[in-house]
Specification:
By secondary structure, this protein is an alpha+beta fold. Helices cover 46% and strands 23% of the residues. The protein starts with a helix and ends with a helix.
């Protein structure tokens, strides 16, 4: 008996699932024509499936105090809910409407048990003979738009939870279908209204039912051929036009239908005046329910005058491009012709310099070489600029060491900066990739331009070049560069023109400092070609900050040099330098190496640090000491240390400027183990420390590298 009951339940459950599926499938596809018919059939299926007597659907009117029945169903032996479907006042059922608005459903198992406040409802249910009632709200975006009622007139019913859930799901299908059909009707009304606008449009619009037959046209299309709408609508092309016009239209219609998708064509055809006009025709197929083209909707613009203007513009553009190419070729050829003899001049100056000359003659040759270098730099700028203008400049894609390019560019200007008494630093963050793929010569050119300008326009203070990195997708690195100086600065109103060709801050700057004014313009274009941007911030009299970024593919990530770093574990190192930036740069290069880093801003602080830690675990093993400090220089500090017996074992490294380069013998005579030249390079710094600590063999070649930083 129990097995039969389970079987019956399974059949009932499967029937419910099938019913819900069929209803949802039906109301996904239902249209406005058969909507009411399908709705009535569905209510009948629900009634028989769940043994109900009557089902009805109400929707609220535009005035929400009224409602109207959309559809109803009842058994043959049961009277319909309403014989006449018309608007009804909502206030006749106040308790019920309030419950519908505030709850997900209203389930009345027995109408004899209604609450006292349901006075009007009790009377209505008694008159209609309703024994049990389930009301489910219909909503659109959580707004109540109507409700579905399920009634039993024969007996009370206990509305079980699973039944309420099934009928709730079905109710959603009702509301979704109603909303969709209502929207479609609204859309159709809008389309009908737009017909007025289309007929007054200057653009030609028409619809084709096949290759040679019009369905409809607007006034502009008919007027183009000197006809009326009625002359064209539902007519064959060959019945309307002469044979040539009909053939042309049929041919282009064939192409548009064959494309079977939105298309665009140009057609030259005579108008009613006999003038040849060029039309740009755009078409879009409108399909029926099975996907076949029902209509081809076409629009056309008369582009005759536009095309004539384009032809004239194209001719002018060709002439301008020819002139531009000729100019660029002339510049490139002239640059080549000038550079070739310049190289000869350099060669002969070198030969002449190696001969026996007087002191005055040697000075003349130095001046001639200097002037030649300046001229060659100008020629190279002009050559690059002409290539950029002619779109002939190409970027290489080769693998190169990024840190070397940056450090070598900075080192190139170190002697000039030292000569002017300027501190030149570079800081490259530790995670900047070692090897990248790009154009190293062009990246070096950008850096050289910016650093050269910083040195040129800075009389005192310092210049700091910093590089950091942000990885993007697909192994592409965004490299951020910053060149900061304490130079003359730039006026705010002049910054906007700074990256334009042949531009400097003002004419007096050009006269005082020289240059073509092309360097920043070329740099800006090179940065764009590398997928980046360049910008500047500056305050007159206080200095400038030039920033740029480039995108380069990562070939090899930053090496951690694990073997060397393991040897550095628990070794204490002291950095002595009065320049804050210099201390931080050296310190940053030593981060993550295992070294314990201490800093001192002058000789007094250095002595204090060394002496206070002499008998602790923080005893200093290596001291990197700047030569030029305000209280005492590096030699004087070392001389003081040598008088203290219990600190004689500290390994000392001298930090010097480029113009203060000394040989290894002199450095060792003053008590130093080695020396480095600013701006410091990270790899040379680490190799130097490893060498003085005896962790790495000191070879002649390595020593030369260490002392030529």
């Amino acid at each position: 008996m129990k097995g039969r009951e389970n079987c019956t339940n399974d059949v009932y459950f499967n029937n419910c699932i099938k019913l819900i599926h069929n209803i949802f499938q039906k109301f996904l596809d239902v249209d406005s024509i058969n909507y009411k018919i399908e709705l009535e059939k569905t209510l009948e299926e629900i009634g028989f499936c769940f043994n109900l007597d009557r089902i009805f659907i109400y929707y609220f009117s535009k005035d929400p105090t009224f409602m109207q029945m959309e559809c109803q169903w009842n058994r043959k032996e049961v009277n319909p809910k309403r014989k006449i479907q018309e608007e009804e006042a909502v206030y006749t059922l106040p308790w019920l409407i309030r419950e519908i608005k505030n709850n997900d459903f209203v389930a009345i198992n027995n109408t004899e048990e209604l609450p006292n406040e349901a006075i009007f409802e009790s009377e209505t249910f008694r008159k209609e003979g309703i024994k049990a009632l389930l009301i489910l709200p219909l909503k659109n975006k959580n707004k109540l738009i109507g409700f579905v009622g399920y009634e039993s007139l024969s007996k009370p019913i206990t509305w079980e939870e699973h039944l309420i859930k099934i009928l709730t799901d079905i109710s959603r299908a009702f509301s979704y279908a109603r909303i969709r059909i209502t929207n479609e009707k609204t859309y159709k009304a809008i389309i009908d209204g737009q017909a007025i606008l289309l007929n007054n449009s200057k653009s030609q619009i028409w619809a084709l039912s096949n290759i040679t037959s019009y369905a409809t046209v607007n006034e502009a299309h008919a007027k183009f051929f000197g006809k009326k709408k009625d002359d064209l609508e539902y007519q064959d092309l060959y019945d309307i036009f002469d044979i040539d016009t009909a053939n042309k239209l049929a041919e282009i219609n064939w192409d548009l239908f064959q494309n079977n998708e939105p298309s665009e064509k140009e057609l030259e055809i005579k108008n009613w005046k006999g003038e040849n006009r060029l039309l740009k025709i755009k078409s879009k197929p409108q399909r029926d329910e099975v996907g076949n083209i029902k209509y081809l909707i076409c629009t056309a613009e008369d582009i005759t005058e536009q095309r004539l203007s384009e032809i004239e513009l194209y001719k002018a553009k060709e002439q301008a491009e020819s002139a531009n190419i000729a100019k660029s070729q002339f510049l490139a050829n002239m640059s080549h012709e000038i550079r070739t003899p310049m190289n000869g001049i350099f060669g002969f100056l070198e030969l002449l310099q190696s001969t026996n000359l007087s002191l005055e003659q040697k000075e003349f040759i130095c001046e001639a070489k200097s002037a030649s270098e300046i001229l060659l730099h100008i020629i190279n700028d002009i050559l690059d600029f002409s290539k950029i203008e002619a779109k002939k400049l190409t970027m290489e894609k080769i693998e190169f060491n990024l840190r070397s390019i940056i450090e070598n560019s900075v080192s190139l200007f170190a002697p000039k900066a030292t000569e002017k008494g300027i501190e030149l630093h570079s800081m490259i963050v530790s995670d900047v990739p070692e090897e990248v793929i790009g154009d190293p010569s062009r990246l070096r050119q950008i850096l050289n331009n910016l650093i050269s300008n910083a040195v040129k326009f800075t009389e005192n203070g310092e210049i700091l070049v910093t590089v950091d990195y942000l990885e993007e997708e697909n192994e592409i690195g965004l490299l951020n560069f910053e060149v900061k100086d304490t130079g003359i600065g730039i006026r705010k109103e002049e910054i906007t023109n700074l990256f334009q060709s042949f531009t400097q801050a003002d004419a007096s700057t050009t006269r005082k400092y020289g240059g073509t004014g092309l360097g920043l313009a070329i740099s800006s274009e090179l940065v764009k070609m590398m997928g980046g941007e360049i910008s500047v911030k500056s305050t007159l009299g206080e200095g400038s900050i030039f920033k740029f970024n480039v995108r380069l593919k990562i070939a090899k990530r930053a090496s951690e040099q694990k073997n060397m770093f393991e040897m550095f574990d628990d070794i204490n190192i002291l950095i002595v330098d009065d320049n804050y930036n210099n201390r931080k740069i050296v310190s940053s290069y030593l981060q993550g190496t295992g070294l314990n880093i201490f800093e001192a801003e002058d000789s007094t602080s250095a002595l204090t640090t060394i002496l206070s830690n002499v008998n602790t675990k923080n005893k200093i093993s290596v001291a990197i000491i700047d030569y030029q400090m305000p209280d005492m220089n590096g030699y004087q500090l070392v001389a003081t240390l040598k008088t203290i017996p219990f600190v004689n074992d500290i390994k000392l490294v001298l930090l010097n400027r480029a113009m203060q380069r000394e040989n290894g013998k002199d450095v060792k005579e003053h008590g130093f183990s080695s020396y480095l030249t600013k701006p410091v390079k990270r790899d040379d710094l680490l190799n130097c420390i490893a060498t003085v600590l005896g962790l790495k063999k000191e070879e002649k070649q390595e020593q030369e590298v260490t002392t030529k930083i």
